Amino acid sequence: MRPLYLLLPILTWVPIGFAQGTGLSAAIQQLPKCAQTCLSTAIKDSPCQTTNTTCVCTNAKLQGDVEGCVLQSCTLRQSLTTKNLTATLCHAPVRSKENDIRISNIVLGVISAACVMSRIIYKAVYSLGELGWDDYSVLAVLFAGLPSTIIIDRGIVPNGLGMDIWAVPFDHITNFVRYLYVLEVLYFLQIALLKLTLLFFFLRIFPKPVIRQLLWATVAFNVLWGLAFVVTSIFQCQPISYYWTSWDKEGHGKCVNINALAWSNAIISIVLDVWMLALPLFEVLQLQLSWRKKVSVAMMFFVGTFVTVVSGLRLQSLVHFAASNNPTWDQTDVINWSGIEINVGIICSCMPALRVILVRLFPKILGSTQGTSQPMYNKYGSRSQGMGGASAVRSGIGKKQSSIPDPHAITYTKSFAVQHGESDETSLVHLDEFGPKTSKVRSSNTSEVSL
Ligand SMILES: *[C@@H]1O[C@H](CO)[C@@H](O)[C@H](O)[C@H]1NC(C)=O
Ligand SMILES: *[C@@H]1O[C@H](CO)[C@@H](O)[C@H](O)[C@H]1NC(C)=O
Ligand SMILES: CC(=O)N[C@H]1CO[C@H](CO)[C@@H](O)[C@@H]1O
């Protein structure tokens, strides 16, 4: 944590007209000596009387003077005490967004844990021995993510996250920064594992050697990237504890540029995401598919990398990451967005598997909206492998002959089939390559609409 040397504004945003009458001189007595001098001097130089709290609390020039003076002549701890006392005196509202982050953290954590567990349990039970590398790594993301969820709820929020720093006791601030450190290291681990999940998933569905080599190269890069950032973030300060003792500017130590660390990680992460979206898309574009199929397949990959969007949103919360002068308040957004990013990533990566599970559980409901015919469900059920696969959405492949067209009417046939074969997601890629097995729905004067 970079020292909070820009603790501004010390005395600003004081609501007008709240403070009344007495207590001003009593409050001044409680202030640290350095701040007392500042305040008395500033009051003397202002039109306010020493007893008029309203005037002292609302006079902008006086506040500016006190602020500049306190920052110069007091330590950071004294400045925080001053800010707390003056805010109390002037009845400044106590802000808090603890509950928002608590709720979002728990809800997302529970949903993503439920997604992962149903994916794993379903696969383990219904397709014995079919757990793939992507399943193991999504499980690893979950295990790396659980501590974060717990730390946010039990550790960092009780120590001041979502509050203004001057409302937080000093020892809580130290704990807060300590938990922030753990969360940062865990985040670097989680984001790398999350990308591994997606890469292993692609490795499962793409058979061509060229793309597999590229994917393996990306896996290697991703592992190195993850390791590099985890190790660097663990040792970013010398001594390590300087990370959480340095907030008051009183200790001695050295840190790498923490902001640069967070930023470079985020930028590389986004570039990797784009690359990991481009690879499969490029592969799909080369297939002999109609553009509609290409779009639907592309959508599937986009769901997998939807998290890129969240990463982008998270960037703006990183702007002031380590330079914040009110970290317990400002870090809320970073922590919140990081949690959203990881959990949305987990949920997205489980989507294809969840879809298979849902279709199996509710064949009637889901089936009727998709217009698939009954035998298709049997395929889901009897399939022995690849439950977690991207449901290879292949439009217009399963033929469902509609009723004999009335020669005098314009028939509108909506044909949509979800095909799952032995090869599961793989069919998405190969079957189409080696001769289209598509038999189109055709009937004269029929407009065919396939999704
Ligand atoms: C205190 O200051 C405010 C505004 O500066 C002024 O309107 C008010 O009359 C003052 N009150 C007293 C008791 O002097
Ligand atoms: C001042 O600090 C105490 C705890 O140290 C806190 O309870 C109180 O809300 C703070 N006051 C303001 C105005 O932030
Ligand atoms: C089989 C059939 O009904 N064919 C008809 C399709 O529609 C055109 C006119 O739009 C008719 O001329 C065909 O007889």
From TrEMBL:
Listed as disulfide-bonded, the cysteine pairs are 34-74, 38-69, 48-55, 57-90
Q: Which SMART domains match?
A: CFEM
Q: Which domain of life is it from?
A: Eukaryota
Which InterPro entries does this UniProt record tie to the protein?
Extracellular_membr_CFEM_dom, Rhodopsin_dom_fungi, SAT4-like
How is it placed in the membrane, per its record? Lipid-anchor; GPI-anchor; Multi-pass membrane protein
Q: Where in the cell is it found?
A: Membrane; Secreted
Q: Where are the transmembrane segments?
A: 106-126, 177-202, 214-235, 266-285, 297-315, 335-358
Keywords tagged on the record: Disulfide bond, Glycoprotein, GPI-anchor, Lipoprotein, Membrane, Secreted, Signal, Transmembrane, Transmembrane helix
Question: So which residues are the signal peptide here?
Answer: 1-19
- Mind telling me which Pfam families this protein's record contains? CFEM, Fung_rhodopsin
Tell me the protein's name. CFEM domain-containing protein
